[in-house]
Amino acid sequence: MEETKYNGPEMSRKKLFVLLLTAALILTLFLTRSRCTDQSETVGEDDVAVAPPEEQYLYISPFDSLFRLYADSICDWKMLAAIAYVESKFDTSAQSYRGAQGLMQIMPATYRHTLAKMGVSDTMAQNVELDIRVAVRYMNDLGKLFSFINEKERINYILGSYNGGSNHIFDAMRIARKNGINRYSWSSLSPVLSSLSDPEVYNDSVCQYGSFDATETLNYVRKVTRKYNEYKSRDLMFRAFEKLAENNKE
Q1: Burial class (CB in 10 A: 0-12, 13-18, 19+), 33
Q2: pLDDT single digits (tens) 5-31
Q3: Of 34, 53, 65, 242, which is the most buried if we count CB atoms within 10 A?
Q4: Active site residue: 10, 87, 230, 242, which one?
């Protein structure tokens, strides 16, 4: 018999790696779920009733319950977790060389100013819950500053301002407008932000806040976005597995 040859497209190494990685993640979630189920189904003879299980969530950090509690339309809980990871690696005692403190790495002046808006007494005591509340309020305030930008793009401007301050973002937007560049697109604005370290640019009359090295800020937005997308993908996989497990029980 003549050997039949496959003439279809070959699978690239990259695609094969992604498929294998996905399979490994699914297997890990399955084994973890199986262990949890086995433990929960071990009921003694004297047990009268078993309370219904609480809703299950993807585990990201020890602070997930607080992220979920204070998340809102600007910052869902996975975004808050992504910010905390990039800012402090979930280290509540972290302090930057610039003086930013705590889980969410907010500068002391910004922290106190936001506390005042919230009607909370001035305190810099380490308080994880308050750190998260201040971060959410601060991001909502930044969201209002950029309310004229469409929702999909707005988060980039909020993150950029969270790291580098809104003043330099608005400087870049004024320069972009003067030069006919789309100031409502983060990808278009990013090169303009990078140019703020050039004297010819920051000495322009429309630039009100002087020189700015945007390297850290642009990297920050990329890192948080990448981590957030990672958490979203993991959460989607977790939810799909939870749904499959529930269907198998029926």
Answers
A1: middle
A2: 444 445 566 555 555 655 555 555 544
A3: 242
A4: 87
CATH 1.10.530.10 fits 63-145, yes or no: yes
Phi, psi dihedral angles at 100 (to 5 degrees): -65, 145
87 catalytic per annotation: yes
Question: Would you list the domain boundaries of the chain?
Answer: 63-145, 150-228
Ramachandran category for residue 173: left, alpha or beta (phi over 0 → left; psi -120 to 50 → alpha): alpha
DSSP 205: T
Q: What is the pTM of this model?
A: 0.77
Q: Which of 118, 139, 120, 135 is nearest to 67 (CA)?
A: 135
- The amino acid occupying position 116 is A
Is 44's pLDDT higher than 80? no
pLDDT for 146 equals: 98
Locate 250 and state its tokens. 């029926």
